[in-house]
Design the sequence.
Protein backbone atom coordinates (compact mmCIF):
# COMPACT_ATOMS: atom_id res chain seq x y z
CA UNK A 1 0.00 0.00 0.00
CA UNK A 2 1.33 3.43 -0.99
CA UNK A 3 1.58 5.63 2.09
CA UNK A 4 -0.61 8.70 2.44
CA UNK A 5 2.50 10.88 2.46
CA UNK A 6 3.53 9.45 -0.90
CA UNK A 7 0.02 9.99 -2.27
CA UNK A 8 -0.24 13.57 -1.02
CA UNK A 9 3.17 14.43 -2.48
CA UNK A 10 2.38 12.86 -5.84
CA UNK A 11 1.54 15.89 -7.99
CA UNK A 12 -0.16 13.69 -10.59
CA UNK A 13 -2.67 12.28 -8.11
CA UNK A 14 -5.81 13.90 -6.70
CA UNK A 15 -6.62 12.15 -3.42
CA UNK A 16 -10.16 11.53 -2.21
CA UNK A 17 -10.84 11.05 1.49
CA UNK A 18 -14.00 10.45 3.51
CA UNK A 19 -14.64 11.67 7.05
CA UNK A 20 -15.99 9.21 9.59
CA UNK A 21 -17.60 10.69 12.70
CA UNK A 22 -17.48 8.35 15.69
CA UNK A 23 -20.56 7.66 17.78
CA UNK A 24 -21.34 7.87 21.46
CA UNK A 25 -22.12 4.29 22.35
CA UNK A 26 -21.23 0.79 21.23
CA UNK A 27 -20.63 -0.01 17.59
CA UNK A 28 -21.70 -3.62 17.11
CA UNK A 29 -19.21 -6.14 15.78
CA UNK A 30 -21.50 -7.81 13.25
CA UNK A 31 -21.81 -6.72 9.64
CA UNK A 32 -25.43 -5.69 10.06
CA UNK A 33 -24.30 -2.46 11.70
CA UNK A 34 -25.04 0.53 9.45
CA UNK A 35 -21.72 2.30 9.99
CA UNK A 36 -19.65 -0.86 9.53
CA UNK A 37 -21.56 -1.67 6.36
CA UNK A 38 -20.76 1.79 5.01
CA UNK A 39 -17.09 1.40 5.92
CA UNK A 40 -16.89 -2.01 4.29
CA UNK A 41 -18.39 -0.70 1.05
CA UNK A 42 -16.25 2.43 0.95
CA UNK A 43 -13.03 0.54 1.68
CA UNK A 44 -13.55 -1.54 -1.46
CA UNK A 45 -14.04 1.47 -3.73
CA UNK A 46 -10.90 2.25 -5.81
CA UNK A 47 -11.79 5.96 -5.96
CA UNK A 48 -11.35 6.33 -2.19
CA UNK A 49 -7.75 6.81 -1.06
CA UNK A 50 -8.06 7.44 2.67
CA UNK A 51 -10.37 7.69 5.64
CA UNK A 52 -10.31 10.39 8.31
CA UNK A 53 -11.69 9.66 11.78
CA UNK A 54 -12.76 12.50 14.06
CA UNK A 55 -12.01 12.81 17.77
CA UNK A 56 -15.16 13.92 19.63
CA UNK A 57 -16.27 16.34 16.91
CA UNK A 58 -18.43 19.25 18.03
CA UNK A 59 -17.31 18.82 21.64
CA UNK A 60 -19.40 15.67 22.15
CA UNK A 61 -18.00 12.57 23.89
CA UNK A 62 -17.52 9.71 21.41
CA UNK A 63 -15.67 6.44 21.02
CA UNK A 64 -11.90 6.64 20.60
CA UNK A 65 -10.97 6.89 16.89
CA UNK A 66 -8.52 3.96 16.97
CA UNK A 67 -11.39 1.41 17.11
CA UNK A 68 -12.45 2.18 13.54
CA UNK A 69 -8.85 2.84 12.51
CA UNK A 70 -7.86 -0.73 13.36
CA UNK A 71 -10.64 -2.10 11.16
CA UNK A 72 -9.62 0.09 8.24
CA UNK A 73 -5.93 -0.67 8.59
CA UNK A 74 -6.81 -4.35 8.38
CA UNK A 75 -8.47 -3.57 5.03
CA UNK A 76 -5.21 -2.05 3.76
CA UNK A 77 -6.56 1.52 3.75
CA UNK A 78 -4.77 4.69 4.74
CA UNK A 79 -6.29 6.29 7.83
CA UNK A 80 -5.94 9.78 9.29
CA UNK A 81 -6.73 10.00 12.99
CA UNK A 82 -7.69 13.35 14.50
CA UNK A 83 -5.86 14.09 17.73
CA UNK A 84 -7.21 16.97 19.82
CA UNK A 85 -6.10 18.85 22.92
CA UNK A 86 -9.34 19.34 24.83
CA UNK A 87 -9.46 16.07 26.78
CA UNK A 88 -5.79 15.33 27.57
CA UNK A 89 -2.80 17.16 28.97
CA UNK A 90 0.61 16.91 27.30
CA UNK A 91 1.43 13.61 29.01
CA UNK A 92 -1.88 12.12 27.92
CA UNK A 93 -1.34 13.31 24.35
CA UNK A 94 2.17 11.88 24.30
CA UNK A 95 0.85 8.55 25.60
CA UNK A 96 -1.80 8.49 22.88
CA UNK A 97 0.82 9.32 20.27
CA UNK A 98 3.04 6.41 21.41
CA UNK A 99 0.03 4.09 21.19
CA UNK A 100 -0.78 5.25 17.67
CA UNK A 101 2.83 4.92 16.56
CA UNK A 102 3.01 1.40 17.98
CA UNK A 103 -0.17 0.38 16.13
CA UNK A 104 1.01 1.85 12.83
CA UNK A 105 -1.34 4.85 12.83
CA UNK A 106 1.16 7.36 11.49
CA UNK A 107 -1.21 9.79 9.76
CA UNK A 108 -2.48 12.35 12.27
CA UNK A 109 -4.47 15.59 12.04
CA UNK A 110 -3.43 17.75 15.00
CA UNK A 111 -6.14 20.21 16.04
CA UNK A 112 -6.99 22.12 19.20
CA UNK A 113 -10.48 20.63 19.37
CA UNK A 114 -13.97 21.98 19.99
CA UNK A 115 -14.94 23.21 23.44
CA UNK A 116 -17.02 20.52 25.24
CA UNK A 117 -20.77 20.92 24.98
CA UNK A 118 -21.78 18.08 27.32
CA UNK A 119 -20.48 15.24 29.45
CA UNK A 120 -21.53 12.66 31.98
CA UNK A 121 -23.67 14.29 34.67
CA UNK A 122 -22.81 17.79 33.46
CA UNK A 123 -20.41 19.72 31.27
CA UNK A 124 -16.91 18.25 30.96
CA UNK A 125 -13.91 20.27 32.15
CA UNK A 126 -11.67 20.95 29.11
CA UNK A 127 -7.89 20.65 29.36
CA UNK A 128 -6.09 22.61 26.60
CA UNK A 129 -2.68 22.14 28.21
CA UNK A 130 -1.29 22.20 24.67
CA UNK A 131 -2.83 23.73 21.56
CA UNK A 132 -2.62 22.60 17.94
CA UNK A 133 0.70 24.37 17.34
CA UNK A 134 2.47 22.97 20.41
CA UNK A 135 0.96 19.52 19.71
CA UNK A 136 2.41 19.63 16.19
CA UNK A 137 5.76 20.64 17.69
CA UNK A 138 5.64 17.69 20.11
CA UNK A 139 4.86 15.22 17.31
CA UNK A 140 7.68 16.69 15.21
CA UNK A 141 10.09 16.30 18.14
CA UNK A 142 8.98 12.67 18.49
CA UNK A 143 9.81 12.15 14.82
CA UNK A 144 13.30 13.53 15.45
CA UNK A 145 13.76 11.38 18.55
CA UNK A 146 12.31 12.88 21.71
CA UNK A 147 14.92 13.72 24.34
CA UNK A 148 13.86 13.14 27.96
CA UNK A 149 15.61 13.37 31.29
CA UNK A 150 17.80 10.39 32.18
CA UNK A 151 18.24 8.81 35.60
CA UNK A 152 21.38 10.75 36.38
CA UNK A 153 20.97 14.50 37.00
CA UNK A 154 21.73 16.46 33.86
CA UNK A 155 21.66 13.40 31.59
CA UNK A 156 19.33 12.83 28.64
CA UNK A 157 17.94 9.83 26.81
CA UNK A 158 16.81 9.90 23.19
CA UNK A 159 13.69 7.82 22.59
CA UNK A 160 12.84 5.89 19.43
CA UNK A 161 11.97 8.04 16.44
CA UNK A 162 8.36 7.97 15.27
CA UNK A 163 7.17 8.32 11.70
CA UNK A 164 4.16 10.62 12.02
CA UNK A 165 2.77 12.38 8.97
CA UNK A 166 1.12 15.28 10.76
CA UNK A 167 -1.43 17.61 9.24
CA UNK A 168 -3.12 20.80 10.39
CA UNK A 169 -6.34 22.68 9.73
CA UNK A 170 -7.00 26.26 8.64
CA UNK A 171 -10.14 28.24 7.92
CA UNK A 172 -10.22 30.59 4.91
CA UNK A 173 -13.88 31.37 5.66
CA UNK A 174 -13.49 33.98 8.40
CA UNK A 175 -15.53 37.15 8.51
CA UNK A 176 -13.16 39.92 9.56
CA UNK A 177 -9.64 40.93 8.60
CA UNK A 178 -8.34 40.11 12.06
CA UNK A 179 -9.89 36.64 12.15
CA UNK A 180 -8.69 35.77 8.65
CA UNK A 181 -5.16 37.11 8.87
CA UNK A 182 -4.58 35.48 12.25
CA UNK A 183 -5.67 32.16 10.70
CA UNK A 184 -3.02 32.63 8.02
CA UNK A 185 -0.39 33.69 10.56
CA UNK A 186 -1.12 30.64 12.69
CA UNK A 187 -0.97 28.39 9.63
CA UNK A 188 2.58 29.55 8.94
CA UNK A 189 3.53 28.85 12.55
CA UNK A 190 2.03 25.35 12.23
CA UNK A 191 4.08 24.68 9.10
CA UNK A 192 7.24 25.97 10.81
CA UNK A 193 6.46 23.71 13.79
CA UNK A 194 6.28 20.56 11.65
CA UNK A 195 2.89 20.28 9.91
CA UNK A 196 3.25 18.50 6.56
CA UNK A 197 -0.19 18.88 5.00
CA UNK A 198 -3.21 21.17 5.35
CA UNK A 199 -6.94 20.48 5.44
CA UNK A 200 -9.23 23.48 5.09
CA UNK A 201 -12.19 23.93 7.37
CA UNK A 202 -15.68 24.03 5.94
CA UNK A 203 -17.34 26.78 3.95
CA UNK A 204 -19.23 27.30 0.71
CA UNK A 205 -17.59 30.31 -0.90
CA UNK A 206 -15.35 29.21 -3.74
CA UNK A 207 -13.60 32.59 -3.86
CA UNK A 208 -12.35 31.99 -0.33
CA UNK A 209 -11.14 28.50 -1.27
CA UNK A 210 -9.25 30.01 -4.20
CA UNK A 211 -7.83 32.71 -1.93
CA UNK A 212 -6.37 30.09 0.41
CA UNK A 213 -4.35 28.31 -2.26
CA UNK A 214 -3.37 31.67 -3.78
CA UNK A 215 -2.12 32.85 -0.39
CA UNK A 216 -0.02 29.69 0.04
CA UNK A 217 1.59 30.31 -3.34
CA UNK A 218 2.28 33.93 -2.47
CA UNK A 219 4.00 32.85 0.76
CA UNK A 220 5.90 30.00 -0.99
CA UNK A 221 4.27 27.39 1.24
CA UNK A 222 4.64 24.18 -0.76
CA UNK A 223 2.58 21.85 1.42
CA UNK A 224 -0.23 19.57 0.15
CA UNK A 225 -3.60 21.29 0.55
CA UNK A 226 -6.83 19.30 0.89
CA UNK A 227 -10.23 20.93 0.39
CA UNK A 228 -13.15 20.07 2.66
CA UNK A 229 -16.55 19.39 1.12
CA UNK A 230 -19.62 18.32 3.07
CA UNK A 231 -22.81 16.75 1.74
CA UNK A 232 -25.37 19.17 3.09
CA UNK A 233 -28.97 18.60 4.10
CA UNK A 234 -31.56 21.09 5.26
CA UNK A 235 -31.02 20.18 8.93
CA UNK A 236 -27.23 20.34 8.77
CA UNK A 237 -27.31 23.65 6.88
CA UNK A 238 -29.41 25.16 9.68
CA UNK A 239 -26.94 23.94 12.31
CA UNK A 240 -23.92 25.29 10.41
CA UNK A 241 -25.67 28.62 9.81
CA UNK A 242 -26.24 29.08 13.54
CA UNK A 243 -22.56 28.44 14.30
CA UNK A 244 -23.33 25.40 16.46
CA UNK A 245 -20.40 23.46 14.96
CA UNK A 246 -17.26 25.65 15.22
CA UNK A 247 -15.43 26.25 11.96
CA UNK A 248 -18.36 25.25 9.70
CA UNK A 249 -19.81 28.21 7.80
CA UNK A 250 -23.12 28.38 5.93
CA UNK A 251 -24.18 31.91 4.98
CA UNK A 252 -27.73 33.27 5.14
CA UNK A 253 -27.75 33.32 1.34
CA UNK A 254 -26.90 29.62 1.09
CA UNK A 255 -29.43 28.74 3.79
CA UNK A 256 -32.10 30.53 1.77
CA UNK A 257 -31.14 28.44 -1.27
CA UNK A 258 -31.21 25.23 0.80
CA UNK A 259 -34.70 25.99 2.11
CA UNK A 260 -35.89 26.60 -1.44
CA UNK A 261 -34.42 23.28 -2.61
CA UNK A 262 -36.06 21.52 0.34
CA UNK A 263 -39.42 21.98 -1.37
CA UNK A 264 -38.35 19.99 -4.44
CA UNK A 265 -39.64 16.39 -4.85
CA UNK A 266 -36.33 14.89 -3.68
CA UNK A 267 -36.05 17.44 -0.80
CA UNK A 268 -32.92 18.93 -2.35
CA UNK A 269 -30.88 15.72 -2.55
CA UNK A 270 -29.87 16.22 -6.19
CA UNK A 271 -28.81 19.81 -5.45
CA UNK A 272 -26.70 18.78 -2.46
CA UNK A 273 -24.93 16.00 -4.38
CA UNK A 274 -24.34 18.28 -7.34
CA UNK A 275 -22.96 21.01 -5.08
CA UNK A 276 -20.49 18.64 -3.41
CA UNK A 277 -19.39 17.25 -6.79
CA UNK A 278 -18.73 20.75 -8.14
CA UNK A 279 -16.68 21.62 -5.08
CA UNK A 280 -14.46 18.59 -5.61
CA UNK A 281 -14.03 19.40 -9.31
CA UNK A 282 -13.15 23.01 -8.41
CA UNK A 283 -10.59 21.94 -5.80
CA UNK A 284 -8.86 19.80 -8.39
CA UNK A 285 -8.88 22.55 -11.03
CA UNK A 286 -7.48 25.15 -8.59
CA UNK A 287 -4.52 22.95 -7.69
CA UNK A 288 -5.59 21.36 -4.42
CA UNK A 289 -3.99 18.00 -3.78
CA UNK A 290 -7.24 16.33 -2.81
CA UNK A 291 -10.73 16.57 -1.41
CA UNK A 292 -12.01 15.59 1.99
CA UNK A 293 -15.69 14.60 1.94
CA UNK A 294 -17.90 14.71 5.02
CA UNK A 295 -21.55 13.96 5.64
CA UNK A 296 -21.49 10.62 3.82
CA UNK A 297 -24.03 8.28 5.41
CA UNK A 298 -24.93 6.22 2.34
CA UNK A 299 -22.53 4.49 -0.03
CA UNK A 300 -24.76 5.42 -2.98
CA UNK A 301 -24.26 9.12 -2.22
CA UNK A 302 -20.48 8.75 -2.38
CA UNK A 303 -20.72 6.92 -5.72
CA UNK A 304 -22.93 9.64 -7.19
CA UNK A 305 -20.74 12.51 -5.94
CA UNK A 306 -17.55 11.01 -7.36
CA UNK A 307 -19.27 10.19 -10.66
CA UNK A 308 -20.53 13.75 -11.06
CA UNK A 309 -17.23 15.30 -9.95
CA UNK A 310 -15.46 13.41 -12.75
CA UNK A 311 -17.98 14.80 -15.23
CA UNK A 312 -17.52 18.35 -13.95
CA UNK A 313 -13.73 17.96 -14.11
CA UNK A 314 -14.06 17.82 -17.89
CA UNK A 315 -15.63 21.30 -17.88
CA UNK A 316 -14.11 24.68 -17.11
CA UNK A 317 -14.93 25.17 -13.44
CA UNK A 318 -15.09 28.93 -13.96
CA UNK A 319 -18.42 28.35 -15.70
CA UNK A 320 -20.10 27.44 -12.42
CA UNK A 321 -18.36 29.84 -10.03
CA UNK A 322 -21.56 31.79 -9.43
CA UNK A 323 -23.34 28.61 -8.37
CA UNK A 324 -20.67 27.99 -5.72
CA UNK A 325 -20.35 31.46 -4.22
CA UNK A 326 -22.33 32.00 -1.04
CA UNK A 327 -20.33 34.57 0.94
CA UNK A 328 -21.03 36.11 4.31
CA UNK A 329 -22.23 39.68 3.96
CA UNK A 330 -19.33 42.18 4.00
CA UNK A 331 -16.71 39.53 4.78
CA UNK A 332 -12.99 40.27 4.38
CA UNK A 333 -10.79 39.07 1.51
CA UNK A 334 -7.01 39.23 1.39
CA UNK A 335 -6.95 39.64 -2.39
CA UNK A 336 -9.12 41.91 -4.48
CA UNK A 337 -11.76 40.30 -6.67
CA UNK A 338 -10.92 39.37 -10.24
CA UNK A 339 -13.87 40.80 -12.14
CA UNK A 340 -13.48 38.33 -14.99
CA UNK A 341 -13.43 35.11 -12.96
CA UNK A 342 -15.08 36.12 -9.69
CA UNK A 343 -12.10 34.65 -7.81
CA UNK A 344 -8.96 36.21 -6.34
CA UNK A 345 -6.91 38.73 -8.27
CA UNK A 346 -3.60 37.42 -7.01
CA UNK A 347 -1.71 40.46 -8.28
CA UNK A 348 -3.67 42.90 -6.14
CA UNK A 349 -3.96 42.74 -2.36
CA UNK A 350 -7.04 44.20 -0.70
CA UNK A 351 -6.28 47.92 -0.04
CA UNK A 352 -8.23 47.68 3.22
CA UNK A 353 -5.61 45.23 4.48
CA UNK A 354 -2.77 47.48 3.34
CA UNK A 355 -4.25 50.53 5.03
CA UNK A 356 -2.77 51.27 8.44
CA UNK A 357 -4.77 53.53 10.70
CA UNK A 358 -2.89 55.24 13.54
CA UNK A 359 -5.34 56.75 16.03
CA UNK A 360 -3.89 57.96 19.29
CA UNK A 361 -6.50 55.91 21.15
CA UNK A 362 -9.26 53.58 19.95
CA UNK A 363 -11.39 50.64 21.05
CA UNK A 364 -8.25 48.48 21.05
CA UNK A 365 -5.42 50.98 21.54
CA UNK A 366 -6.21 51.94 25.12
CA UNK A 367 -4.13 54.01 27.55
CA UNK A 368 -3.34 50.79 29.46
CA UNK A 369 -2.00 49.18 26.29
CA UNK A 370 0.23 52.17 25.56
CA UNK A 371 1.47 52.16 29.15
CA UNK A 372 2.19 48.42 28.95
CA UNK A 373 4.23 48.86 25.78
CA UNK A 374 6.27 51.59 27.45
CA UNK A 375 7.00 49.51 30.55
CA UNK A 376 7.99 46.54 28.37
CA UNK A 377 10.41 48.66 26.34
CA UNK A 378 11.97 50.04 29.50
CA UNK A 379 12.23 46.83 31.55
CA UNK A 380 11.16 43.51 30.01
CA UNK A 381 12.54 43.57 26.48
CA UNK A 382 15.91 41.83 26.37
CA UNK A 383 17.41 45.03 24.93
CA UNK A 384 15.60 47.27 27.43
CA UNK A 385 17.75 49.85 29.27
CA UNK A 386 16.69 48.52 32.70
CA UNK A 387 16.65 44.79 31.89
CA UNK A 388 20.08 44.00 33.34
CA UNK A 389 19.38 46.15 36.40
CA UNK A 390 16.14 44.23 37.02
CA UNK A 391 17.93 40.95 36.45
CA UNK A 392 20.49 41.89 39.08
CA UNK A 393 17.73 42.89 41.50
CA UNK A 394 15.95 39.53 41.21
CA UNK A 395 19.23 37.69 41.41
CA UNK A 396 19.79 39.30 44.81
CA UNK A 397 16.29 38.97 46.30
CA UNK A 398 16.04 35.29 45.36
CA UNK A 399 18.80 34.55 47.84
CA UNK A 400 17.55 33.00 51.07
CA UNK A 401 18.28 35.92 53.40
CA UNK A 402 16.27 38.28 51.18
CA UNK A 403 13.15 36.09 51.20
CA UNK A 404 11.02 38.82 52.82
CA UNK A 405 11.83 41.29 50.05
CA UNK A 406 11.18 38.54 47.49
CA UNK A 407 7.69 37.91 48.91
CA UNK A 408 6.98 41.65 48.96
CA UNK A 409 8.02 41.97 45.30
CA UNK A 410 5.80 39.05 44.32
CA UNK A 411 2.86 40.53 46.27
CA UNK A 412 3.32 43.80 44.38
CA UNK A 413 3.45 41.97 41.04
CA UNK A 414 0.31 39.93 41.78
CA UNK A 415 -1.63 42.99 42.89
CA UNK A 416 -1.01 45.04 39.74
CA UNK A 417 -1.26 42.18 37.25
CA UNK A 418 -4.55 40.97 38.70
CA UNK A 419 -5.95 44.49 38.73
CA UNK A 420 -4.84 45.45 35.22
CA UNK A 421 -4.70 42.15 33.30
CA UNK A 422 -6.82 39.64 35.27
CA UNK A 423 -3.66 37.60 35.82
CA UNK A 424 -4.03 33.92 36.79
CA UNK A 425 -0.42 33.59 38.03
CA UNK A 426 0.74 30.97 35.53
CA UNK A 427 4.33 32.14 36.10
CA UNK A 428 5.13 31.82 32.38
CA UNK A 429 3.62 35.04 31.10
CA UNK A 430 2.35 35.50 27.52
CA UNK A 431 1.14 39.08 27.94
CA UNK A 432 3.88 40.45 25.63
CA UNK A 433 3.05 37.77 23.04
CA UNK A 434 -0.65 38.77 22.82
CA UNK A 435 -0.44 42.57 23.18
CA UNK A 436 -0.94 42.41 26.97
CA UNK A 437 -4.06 40.25 26.91
CA UNK A 438 -3.96 37.27 29.27
CA UNK A 439 -4.80 33.96 27.51
CA UNK A 440 -5.38 32.20 30.83
CA UNK A 441 -8.18 34.51 31.97
CA UNK A 442 -9.53 35.86 28.67
CA UNK A 443 -9.44 32.87 26.30
CA UNK A 444 -11.60 29.81 26.95
CA UNK A 445 -8.96 27.57 25.36
CA UNK A 446 -5.88 29.35 26.75
CA UNK A 447 -4.52 29.88 23.22
CA UNK A 448 -0.96 31.24 23.16
CA UNK A 449 -0.13 30.49 19.52
CA UNK A 450 -2.94 32.20 17.68
CA UNK A 451 -6.71 31.77 17.64
CA UNK A 452 -8.53 28.46 17.38
CA UNK A 453 -10.72 28.04 14.30
CA UNK A 454 -13.98 28.35 16.19
CA UNK A 455 -14.61 32.09 16.34
CA UNK A 456 -17.69 33.44 14.55
CA UNK A 457 -17.73 37.07 13.43
CA UNK A 458 -15.02 37.96 15.95
CA UNK A 459 -16.82 36.27 18.85
CA UNK A 460 -15.47 33.38 20.93
CA UNK A 461 -16.88 29.96 19.99
CA UNK A 462 -18.09 29.51 23.58
CA UNK A 463 -21.23 31.52 22.89
CA UNK A 464 -22.29 31.89 26.50
CA UNK A 465 -19.40 34.29 27.11
CA UNK A 466 -20.36 36.71 24.33
CA UNK A 467 -16.69 37.66 24.47
CA UNK A 468 -14.68 38.99 21.56
CA UNK A 469 -11.76 36.75 20.65
CA UNK A 470 -8.60 38.14 22.25
CA UNK A 471 -6.67 37.49 19.04
CA UNK A 472 -8.94 39.91 17.20
CA UNK A 473 -7.99 42.60 19.70
CA UNK A 474 -4.34 41.59 19.52
CA UNK A 475 -4.28 41.77 15.73
CA UNK A 476 -5.58 45.32 15.56
CA UNK A 477 -3.27 46.47 18.34
CA UNK A 478 -0.26 44.96 16.61
CA UNK A 479 -1.22 46.38 13.22
CA UNK A 480 -1.52 49.87 14.73
CA UNK A 481 2.15 49.87 15.73
CA UNK A 482 3.83 47.35 13.45
CA UNK A 483 1.70 47.44 10.31
CA UNK A 484 1.69 44.26 8.24
CA UNK A 485 5.45 43.74 8.42
CA UNK A 486 5.74 42.14 11.85
CA UNK A 487 3.14 39.51 12.66
CA UNK A 488 2.31 38.35 16.17
CA UNK A 489 3.37 34.78 15.42
CA UNK A 490 6.77 35.32 13.81
CA UNK A 491 8.38 33.27 16.56
CA UNK A 492 8.70 29.80 18.00
CA UNK A 493 5.69 27.98 19.42
CA UNK A 494 4.92 29.23 22.92
CA UNK A 495 4.60 26.24 25.26
CA UNK A 496 3.77 27.05 28.87
CA UNK A 497 6.02 25.62 31.57
CA UNK A 498 3.52 24.54 34.24
CA UNK A 499 6.35 24.12 36.75
CA UNK A 500 6.43 27.92 37.03
CA UNK A 501 2.81 28.21 38.20
CA UNK A 502 2.34 30.47 41.24
CA UNK A 503 5.82 31.94 40.90
CA UNK A 504 6.89 35.42 39.81
CA UNK A 505 6.67 35.75 36.02
CA UNK A 506 8.77 38.93 36.29
CA UNK A 507 11.55 36.99 37.97
CA UNK A 508 11.17 34.16 35.46
CA UNK A 509 11.52 36.65 32.63
CA UNK A 510 14.61 38.38 33.99
CA UNK A 511 16.26 35.12 35.06
CA UNK A 512 15.56 33.51 31.63
CA UNK A 513 13.28 30.73 32.88
CA UNK A 514 10.10 31.32 30.87
CA UNK A 515 9.13 30.20 27.34
CA UNK A 516 10.78 33.27 25.78
CA UNK A 517 14.14 32.59 27.43
CA UNK A 518 15.68 31.40 24.16
CA UNK A 519 15.56 35.01 22.90
CA UNK A 520 17.60 36.23 25.84
CA UNK A 521 20.05 33.33 25.50
CA UNK A 522 20.58 34.19 21.83
CA UNK A 523 21.20 37.82 22.76
CA UNK A 524 23.78 36.79 25.38
CA UNK A 525 25.60 34.55 22.89
CA UNK A 526 25.82 37.40 20.37
CA UNK A 527 27.58 39.50 22.97
Sequence:
Amino acid sequence: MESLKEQFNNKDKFCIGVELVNTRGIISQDNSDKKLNLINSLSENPDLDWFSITDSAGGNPTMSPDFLAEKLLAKNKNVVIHITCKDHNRNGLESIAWKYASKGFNNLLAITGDYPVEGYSGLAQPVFDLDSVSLIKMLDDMNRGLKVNGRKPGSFVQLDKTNFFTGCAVSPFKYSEAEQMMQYEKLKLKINSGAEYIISQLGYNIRKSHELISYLKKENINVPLIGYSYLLSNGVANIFNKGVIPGCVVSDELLKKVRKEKNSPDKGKAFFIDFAARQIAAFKAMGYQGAYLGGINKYEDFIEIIKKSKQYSKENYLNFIKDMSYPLKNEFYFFQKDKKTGLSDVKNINPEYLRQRKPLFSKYVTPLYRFSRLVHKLFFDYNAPFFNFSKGYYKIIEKKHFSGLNRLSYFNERFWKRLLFKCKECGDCSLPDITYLCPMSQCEKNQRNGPCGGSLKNKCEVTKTGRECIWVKAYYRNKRFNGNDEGLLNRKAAIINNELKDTSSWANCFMLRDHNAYKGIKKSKKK
Notes: The two ends are 53 Å apart (CA to CA).
